[in-house]
Amino acid sequence: MAEGSFWPAMDLLRSEPMQLVQLIVPTESAHRTISYLGDLGLFQFKDLNPEKSPFQRTYAGQIKRCAEMARKLRFFKDQMKKAGLSPSTRNISTDDDLDNLEVKLGELESELMEINANDEKLRHTYSELLEYKLVLQKAGEFFNSAQSTAAAHQREFEAQNGGEGSMDSPLLLEQEMTTDPSKHVKLGFVSGLVPRDKAMAFERILFRATRGNVFLKQSVVENPVIDPGSGEQVEKNVFIVFYSGERAKNKILKICEAYGANRYPFTEDLGKQFQMITEVSGRLAELKTTIDVGKAHQSNLLQRIGFQIEQWTVLVKKEKSVYHTLNMLSIDVTKKCLVAEGWCPVYGTHQIQDTLQRARLDSSSQVGAIFQVLQTKELPPTYFRTNKFTSAYQEIVDAYGVAKYREANPGVFTIVTFPFLFAVMFGDWGHGICLMLATLYLIAMEKKYSTQKLGDILEMTFGGRYVILMMSIFSIYTGFIYNEFFSVPFELFGPSAYSCRDLSCKDAYTSGLVKVRDTYPFGVDPKWHGTRSELPFLNSMKMKMSILLGVAQMNLGIILSYFNAKFFSNNLNVRYQFVPQMIFLNSLFGYLSLLIIVKWSTGSQADLYHVMIYMFLSPAEDLGDNQLFFGQKYLQMLLLVLALVAVPWMLFPKPFLLKKQHEERLQGQSYTLLDNAEGNLEVESEPPTPHGHEEFEFSEVFVHQLIHTIEFVLGSVSNTASYLRLWALSLAHSELSSVFYDKVLLLAWGFNNTVILIIGIVVFVCATVGVLLIMETLSAFLHALRLHWVEFQNKFYEGDGYKFSPFSFTLLLSEEDEAA
């Protein structure tokens, strides 16, 4: 691509000149070199090993080590989060290299895992002992209650039968004395805890499995207990199951296991019960002390980790990215060096060379890296140097498509045109002030919010704070032009030029007002608001203003296509695209804009609709009262002929001339012309063939030009009509603001009631903020976005480039923070 040397250097008008560079780096200084280039952030590496999988590359082992260290750091962060600790914000310098850090992280992980394992065992034992204590207490209460009841029943029975014996007494006593003691039935029991939500099912299955040959007693535990198995708090019941026989016991044990019931031994001896409770309580106290000491040790360890975990995380991320980049380099085994290729801006040449020299000195390498520029026909990446003010506007343009290398960037003009077109639709200086105050708050809190993670909506709003600031400033300006402050007019720039015919103003809305002073100096006269002719006047003004702004911006787009063609020395596009497009657009809609200006200047009553329609239907017809200036009819005929000629001018010459150029190039007669038209041939022609020349399909080129011509001709009409959205949105905003003011605020004021007035003010504020300051702002923003993307940028902007993505630690860390 040829670049005109006479063009002034601008950071945003053209992307930065780029160059393809080859670096030959000695192996011993390769790591430090890549690391220093990452700090610089001006070199985009190309992958020279695309045929290799990630596992086949040279530094796959180092990347695996970095991934393992990153896992350990995530483990530490999870443990800190569980412990309620946060990483320290203090910057503690760390001199650890990757090997030392790997050893240190391994030791810390082992220590922390050992602490966690011991803590888990201790807590498991503590939970079991706590449950055992509950079983001892509840089961002991049951046995004590049962023995007391049995003793009372025995005393009552002896009191009733202690007198005269019955006839059966000797026989029963004799039977008892003759019965074999070994045949007495001995009942066993199982005790433990069962989850309360399973208690009913547990009781039913016990009854069914043993056919009712068990006795179950349950006691509710008032507070939830920590289950030893899951570690979660669970509401449980203490149970005791009495049974007879080994088969019943086996069934009960299996059912307990199935229902998650924890079993604990129990003795009937009261003395042993008391002794066991005392022992369990002592062990619980000891375990509690041990757990607290372990917790304190864990907390201290995590705090020590927290002081350096952020620095370690950054170090691991940097090292991993360095090895990823080293894997993109080609290794020359015989010469013990690495070969890198990539793009860098021309202005960064000296900085990169200084960085390579510094890396050689710091690594004590005997041989320095070699920096050499390569010649290539490959399209370079697009790189714009932006700041915090211009970056948001560039993002608006890039969302449509990244600029082709060195083509004119719409972002320069978007800085002014985007907020201005927004303000045309949002013209109210009261709303503009509210929007500006909110934006100034975001700018004032810039340092605080830039380091915080905000929500999606707030993050987007904060990122575009300077765009919104410009939108609010332009809204105040257009609000002064429309003379609207929450739909209320003010005499800011002097008294109104109009007045009533008499003091009563009875005929103000029938006969109208009379002009008593000079024209209102700036904007709409306040007397227009509220009159019977307000809507027709504002509609006419805003509609014509929308057409003027639209035609002006579309002309700007076509003019930028001329500068693109001249910059790339593409004379075909100048002669057969720029010239006929300018003629066609201005023969029709440029002429309409001229008529609007003449009508405003002369105060004529001509019907512009009639003029434009009959310019096509009856171009030779006399204009009559619709004539605005002498010779208008002949000018219209000339412009109509020019518009008709411009269509084939756009369509036919360019494809045939491209075909002629291609044929001459194949014959070796026009190498200079081919070089001049290089920018155009990149788009129109096919990729190189194996025979060493480019294929040229005339039919494809002709169809492409036909589509482009039809698109421009129809687009000129539709795009001009599309700019009428400026009028429609402005009218909607004004009418909504007027409705909220008249039907809410003034209506509440008319009741002469404080409560109703407060309610009216609250409703007015909520409606203004919710509808006008949020929804209308978003609506006007989207419409302004559409006007720039479709109506403006399609006149000159190809947007088929790709972004310059340098290897940069700053970008790497910021992207990962946003993803997190």
Average pLDDT, all residues: 85
Q: Which structural category fits the helices and strands? A: alpha+beta
- Quaternary form: single chain
Low-confidence stretches: 1-10, 163-179, 669-693
Shape: extended
Please report the total strand number as a whole number: 13
**What's the story with the biggest beta sheet?**
5 strands, antiparallel
The helix count comes to 26
End-to-end Cα distance, whole Å, is 41 Å
Beta-strand content? 5-15%
Q: What is the strand and helix layout of this fold?
A:
Blueprint: E1 18-26, H1 27-40, E2 44-45, H2 60-82, H3 98-161, H4 169-178, E3 188-195, H5 199-209, E4 215-220, E5 225-226, E6 233-234, E7 236-243, H6 246-258, E8 262-264, H7 270-306, H8 309-326, E9 330-332, E10 337-345, H9 349-362, E11 370-374, H10 391-400, H11 411-425, H12 429-444, H13 446-450, H14 456-463, H15 465-482, E12 498-499, E13 514-515, H16 534-567, H17 571-602, H18 608-617, H19 632-651, H20 653-666, H21 671-676, H22 678-684, H23 698-722, H24 725-749, H25 754-792, H26 809-819
Antiparallel strand pairs: 1-10, 1-11, 2-10, 3-7, 3-8, 4-7, 5-6, 9-10, 12-13
Helix pairs in contact: 1-8, 1-9, 2-3, 2-7, 2-8, 3-7, 5-6, 10-11, 11-15, 11-24, 11-25, 12-15, 16-17, 16-24, 17-19, 17-23, 20-23, 24-25
Could you explain how this protein is built, in words?
The protein is an alpha+beta fold and about 800 residues long. It has helices spanning about 25-40, 60-80, 100-160, 170-180, 200-210, 245-260, 270-305, 310-325, 350-360, 390-400, 410-425, 430-445, 445-450, 455-465, 465-480, 535-565, 570-600, 610-615, 630-650, 655-665, 670-675, 680-685, 700-720, 725-750, 755-790, 810-820; strands at about 20-25, 45, 190-195, 215-220, 225, 235, 235-245, 260-265, 330, 335-345, 370-375, 500, 515. The strands form 4 sheets. Strands 1, 2, 9, 10 and 11 form a 5-stranded antiparallel beta sheet that branches. The protein has a 4-stranded antiparallel beta sheet with strand order 4-7-3-8, with helices on both faces. Helix 1 (about 25-40) packs across helix 9, helix 12 (about 430-445) runs antiparallel to helix 15 and helix 24 runs antiparallel to helix 25 (about 755-790). The model is unreliable at about 1-10, about 165-180 and about 670-695 (pLDDT under 50). Keywords: Coiled coil, Hydrogen ion transport, Ion transport, Membrane, Transmembrane, Transmembrane helix, Transport.
